[in-house]
Request: fold
Amino acid sequence: ETVLTQFPGTLSLSPGERATLFCRASQSVDSSYLAWYQQKPGQAPRLLIYGASRRATGIPDRFNGGGSGTDFTLTISRLEPEDFAVYYCQQYGSSPLWTFGPGTKVELK
Amino acid sequence: QVQLQESGPGLVKPSETLSLTCTVSGDSVTSGSYYWSWIRQSPGKALEWIGYISDSGSTKYNPSLQSRVTMSVDTSKNQFSLKVTSVTAADTAVFYCASLSGYCSGDTCYRGAYFDNWGHGTLVTVSS
Reply:
């Protein structure tokens, strides 16, 4: 089973600042199957990035994904007020096939 | 744009069966464009993939739940459903239905790469 770890657990930042979120896999992940989601309280997750670096439809270009192998990043270049949320990485691979990381909360400093 | 909506009881007694339905609009459950999935999120915890059902009715389940989970499709209602038997308090969660999709890059296509459309979620509490 591929376990995803995300760090930091919480990121305290101000609007306009840059956020860098990390996702580490316990074994190598095909980057074609690495995705990132944003979740706000009381809402379903929203797809941001797929294929490690491809932005989903309608996602602003301040969101950028990167990485390969076991280490992936999500960068938000300049935080907007609506970006404060929890972010999850997700991979498809070995059983149980689709797994999510525990999330990183980006909170207002 | 595909839209999904979960429905079902919000309270289930321990040892009973949890049953949820997801109504799909904007696409047909038989279109073959998606795998139709269920994902749950226990209070304050991360997301857990439960399983999917394809347009042809084939299924894949999370091994941790496989013995208790069944998914089915109702093409006449454009819905797909989830049943989880012998529930306990540990099954209390927000349940989401979602479409599992993929993409192509060059000559290679990556099916089942991401969950792109989600329902709003429904909280199911297991309690007597």
In short: The radius of gyration of chain A is 13 Å. The mean pLDDT of chain A is 95.
